[in-house]
Amino acid sequence: MQKQKIRSGRRGLAPMGLVIFAASLSMACGGQMPFSGRIEVAGDPPPLPPPPPPPKVEKPKPPSRVEVRDNKIEIREKIQFEQAKAAIKTESHDLLNEIVKVIQENPHIKKIAIEGHASSDGNKAFNKKLSDDRAKSVRKYLVEHGIPEAALTAKGFGDEKPIADNETEEGREQNRRVEFNIVEQEVTKKKVEIDASGKEKVLEKSQATEKKEVEEDKDDKSDKKDAKKEGSKK
Q1: pLDDT tens, 174-201?
Q2: Which of the residues 14, 67, 135, 214 has the least number of beta carbons within 10 Å of its own beta carbon?
Q3: How many of the other CB atoms lie within 10 Å of CB of 177?
Q4: pLDDT digits 0-9 by tens, 140-172
Q5: Which domains does the chain have, with CATH numbers?
């Protein structure tokens, strides 16, 4: 009777010893039991953030209407005049203002020859006079807007210097034009050396004034020849 009680007591102690051993083993290893359940969140999930704005694409700038190239100031738009007159239309004032700005931004330009040209349409003498008056009208506008008068000459050549075929309307329209030729400017000359790495080293730098002879029209040349002949006779 007494033995049976002792055996049953041992059986009751065994499970408790296992629990204590398992707990002490878990604490000694420092491990954690993974959570295998499911968590439910009440309500709607937060909205997704908005997408980033698209990158800004800058529109390409339109090409400049006025540009300095070598010995010329090139204009990509025609100066408009009143029909058969030297009066400049107001729609061309912006273009002329750009020409003023370009001249002022390029102080190396010292002298400009403004040339007026015409097509072969109409009376030759009238066209010559009209092209001359138009060139002088452009010079007057530039002087009134800040360009020194001494830096500008103006002359008309009529139909003497065509750049297109006068037999077509398109060609005649191209021949009616005003040109800006640079006849005096300061030029910077450099003497350079290229090293082994391909870099440029300036050895010498100097400035010189480059002058170009102003072209004369045919009538002026013939007048000068006649004057020389008359002088030789005397």
Answers
A1: 999 999 999 999 988 778 788 788 788 8
A2: 14
A3: 20
A4: 999 999 999 999 999 999 999 999 999 999 999
A5: 66-185 (3.30.1330.60)
